[in-house]
Amino acid sequence: MQFDPFVIPFNIGLYFILFYAVARSIVWFRELSRPDKLRLQRGFFGRAFGQSLKEIFLESLIHRKILRTNPRLGYMHMSLAFGWFLLILFGTIEADFFGEKHLNPPYKAIFFRFFNPDHGKTSLEEGYAFLMDFLLAFILSGLLLAVLKRFTSKVVGMKKTTRLKAIDKVALASLWLIFPSRLIAESLTSGAYGTGSFLTGSLGSWLASFLPAQQVAYPFWWLYSLALGTFFVLLPLTRYMHIPTELFLIFMRNSGIRTGDKAGTFSEVQVYSCSSCGICIDQCQMNLSAGINNIQSAYLMKAIRNNEDTWDIAHNCLLCGRCDQKCPVGIELSPIRMILRRAGESESKSDIRNIWKGYFRRNQSIPSPKPAADLNYSFLPQIEPAKVDVLYFAGCMTHLTPSIKNSMTKILNTSGVKWSFMDETGGACCGRPLMLAGQDREARELINYNSQIIWKSGAHTLVTSCPICYKVFKESYYLDVEVLHHTQYIKNLIEEGSVKLNFLHKSVAYHTPCELGRGSGVYDEPREVLMHVAKLEKTGYEDENSLCCGGSLGNIKLSHARKQQIAAVTVRELTKGEPDILATACPLCKKTLANATRTKVADISEIVAEAIITDQPKKISFQRRQLQVKESAGIS
Amino acid sequence: MDKFGFTLSKARFIDYDANDRRVVDYIIEREPTLKLCIECGGCTATCSTGNFTEFSLREMNILLKRGENKKVRNKINQCMLCGKCILVCPRGVNTRNVVFLAKQAFQKFDGYAV
């Protein structure tokens, strides 16, 4: 018995998906830019290759990152991916070793029990059958979790699970059918021949006790083959495309390819690598605090894949970066969102009749940027700044919180450096708010204007109080100056001994601003400065785990009320230890948080300014001076 | 238009018949908080652009609501979207989105006669 018609659906599906994967890889590779092609080639024949293989094993099979974030969800993914992989691997070995001849076609391994029903009589065969049964049980346990998760996501410790489209449901149903139908088919065949191990053997003998096992088994083998075939054929249209695509992504990333600011092969590979696991949804404060659950990154990736209108989803996001940090696939979610913002409005082309088009690559899944208009900011005055060493740029938001501005003035004056205030009477915006709205060309105008002032001042250091400005100065200005956030600069001043500080004997909780922390990687300096002047308390939301205040300029759509909801939750979490002061390093965070709490909210610069020891003698009270005069005159 | 025998100075003249509310309707549909605006002028007082020019979001809002789009269209691009106005608005109007949508609306309806 070498062949049976029931293997045809499986064969069609398998050869289709193999051909499809090769064709799509070629198309993707051809569309890479020349430098990226070279990177990928170098990555393939260099050390990156070994790294990629290791990462594929740890992430695509074991799912280490998901296991770390959420053990139950990780187990679910691991059992399905790693279990299935082992089942195929050992199945192939089994067919090769115990089969009639070596080098069998794939279907012989997958349907081994059907073609070798009396396999499992000797002790070696029994041991092997036990292994295969164990793997099947391993997968089925994960599948049980997956099924339960669909109905109640709390089973795997998730607050929300992703919603599916119709075609995803068909694919999901076929995926779910694969392993139970294998179990029943194998059990019935084993039952008829008295073989099989603890799972298929015992289930088989029980079923065979009241069923004509051999006759009933055959339809289940058909079902197993059909489920596999359907799953393979639908794979490119559904989120399961992430299974082959993620391998591609890992190789590309390890070769040093990054998202960049335009849509291309890499961003598309990332979009298809999203498995909709939903971890981003569980991290998103818009979901947790404001109850908005249709704009998270998983839904954005899905909307791009389905060619839906992404305009609203792309803009309704705080860009706090919490999902980027937690994405187990390591997709650069915020950069992809920014590409969409820059690209402008697109028309939705998703339609049930066009579903087959999903097999072909769209010319451009992500539309290209819109053409430029005229100059807008010619009204900005030409300034001839004085030559200085240090230039201080307060930024728009700092002008709304004058106490930060005044504190910085005090600190800079005390330090004795030669500095000047770049925007003392209010200057041009840094350009980042326009960038966040996808208006890069307009932003570039402001960047050029500010660059000129900085360049003319001859400063070697640019200090800014606003993390939003800091990020754009650091990343998008091409300047030959050291850009520092004021927390970094104050830390330098303290270490040099330029400013001397008292210890304030107050407890402080520190809120890491998104743009400074996850956005720019400045975590330690603010905390070190705070530890000089006050007792720093832990909040449970340190570093990458920090919360967003809700006021982010990244979200242009979010209403005032929703922002307040997010701020309220953030403040509640951060002030659980009842600190005297809630410290932050961002004027916008300060303003947003201060509106939501009775705890004193202060910028680090304000706390430092308060703690400064000045050299001038203290003012002496009137009575005390009288006493001193009397003493010096010898009157008691 | 009917003449009632008295005259109006041109500056005080609002011709609702000739005005076009497409832009403001487009904005309000997507950002209903614009309706909450009481034209207090807080946004204008804090405005980064207003620091250098006569740019006034309060004036823009009034002009848009009247449908006098032409006057807005030439000026709205001066906004730097810095977001200070959101923080001072006592009514919780998402002013940044109003400007963003206005720009978008002008692009969308480009070429129409005002």
Structure description:
The complex is a heterodimer of chains A (636) and B (114). Chain A is mostly helical. Chain A has four domains: 62-237, no CATH class; 244-344, Fumarate Reductase Iron-sulfur Protein, Chain B, domain 2; 390-495, Rossmann fold, CATH 3.40.50; 500-611, Rossmann fold. Chain A is built from 30 helices and eight strands. Chain A has helices at residues 8-30, 34-44, 47-61, 64-69, 71-98, 106-110, 112-115, 123-151, 166-193, 200-208, 213-234, 242-254, 265-273, 279-283, 285-288, 297-305, 311-315, 322-326, 333-343, 396-400, 402-415, 432-436, 440-457, 467-476, 486-496, 524-533, 560-574, 587-594, 604-611, 622-633; strands at residues 390-393, 419-421, 461-464, 482-485, 507-511, 535-537, 581-584, 600-603. In chain A, the strands form two sheets. Chain A has a four-stranded parallel β-sheet. In chain A, strands 6-5-7-8 form a four-stranded parallel β-sheet, with helices on both faces. Chain A is elongated. The mean pLDDT of chain A is 89. Chain B is globular, with a radius of gyration of 15 Å. Helices cover 42% and strands 0% of the residues of chain B. By secondary structure, chain B is mainly α. In chain B, α1 (22-30) crosses α6. Chain B has a single domain, classed as Fumarate Reductase Iron-sulfur Protein, Chain B, domain 2 (Orthogonal Bundle), CATH 1.10.1060.10. Chains A and B meet through α20 of A and α5 and α6 of B.
Summarize the structure.
With 636 residues, chain A is mainly alpha-helical. Chain A has helices at residues 8-30, 34-44, 47-61, 64-69, 71-98, 106-110, 112-115, 123-151, 166-193, 200-208, 213-234, 242-254, 265-273, 279-283, 285-288, 297-305, 311-315, 322-326, 333-343, 396-400, 402-415, 432-436, 440-457, 467-476, 486-496, 524-533, 560-574, 587-594, 604-611, 622-633; strands spanning 390-393, 419-421, 461-464, 482-485, 507-511, 535-537, 581-584, 600-603. Chain A has 4 domains: 62-237, no CATH class; 244-344, Fumarate Reductase Iron-sulfur Protein, Chain B, domain 2, CATH 1.10.1060; 390-495, Rossmann fold, CATH 3.40.50; 500-611, 3-Layer(aba) Sandwich (Rossmann fold).
